[in-house]
Amino acid sequence: MGFGTVTGAGDRDAARRRAVADALLAAALAGGADVSGRTATNRGIVTSDVAIVRTVGRILSHRILSESFSGQVWRVRIEALVGDGPGPLCPIRTLVVTAYAPRVEVDPHAPEWSGELADTIARRLVQRLARHPAVSLAGVTDRPVPRTSRRGEAFDYDVLTRGSVRLPGNGHGFVPTIRLTRTAGPKLELELELKLVGADGTASLQHFIRRVPLPRPSLAGGLSVLVQPQREALAAALLDGSDRALDALFDRAGCEPVSARLSSAGGLLEVPVGRANGLTQGSLAFTADGGSTQILEVVELRGSSARLRPLDPTLGPSHFAGRRVQFVETGR
């Protein structure tokens, strides 16, 4: 059960969010808490005694059982699943994805058309990821993930002539590695290393390996695979089953709560994630670091950013700047 009191005109919806936040925090604490403290003394006299209570799990899913409003007070009762991993029925978040140029490695003993085959495989991977329900494909580029700083881009020829392909603060980059190797049989082996990187540097990997018999030489010679539908058929055969690996990568990322690092802006706190990432005006942010658990509400929501303020009015922006938060949807 959580409670939220209306403090003034126009505060009714915010008070409901505070009630949901109160219930979520109570549920998280019921799932286990880490309690620590510190005591300050001066010449043997205790001058302050502070207890820090931090939840050991997080809300994996929740359902509002009932809510009522009476006497300027919201009362919300919830059912929540608390744990330390992705929930079994996690909501799909929106991943704003840029597909970067693949890294291609071809065995010297592989057929001469293997490079063109790798291009076909890369194209099919992008087509597949674009169909995933968690993905909003922001763009496809033939350039690698930028390694230079923003300042260094001012002297980068590609950036100056073609524009920057740097990940936005709310984005993810898809970077596949495609390895083609000739093995005994003779067979052609495809090894995929599917990598999803976040703008904050976090990354997840998924691997896939498959071997298929090499096509027999035709009257047109070894280059026949380049100009006939056989190349598409070979790519399809090599990629058979890879959709499960690709889906697993994005399912895992889609099950993770939207998270971001807070920065101070104009007396409020800002995060580089917003409506495009699935946030709504009813989203609540929970601190996700080693400090005590605190909650912030959305006061301004844009496409790719949001401004927040802490529910505890005694804590200013400086208390939160630089900290990571994870978002939970309250339903309004």
Automatic annotation (TrEMBL):
Residues 11-80 form the Flagellar assembly protein T N-terminal domain. Gene3D superfamilies: FlgT, N-terminal domain. It comes from the Bacteria. This is Flagellar assembly protein T N-terminal domain-containing protein. It comes from Cereibacter sphaeroides (strain ATCC 17025 / ATH 2.4.3) (Rhodobacter sphaeroides). The lineage of its organism: Bacteria, Pseudomonadati, Pseudomonadota, Alphaproteobacteria, Rhodobacterales.
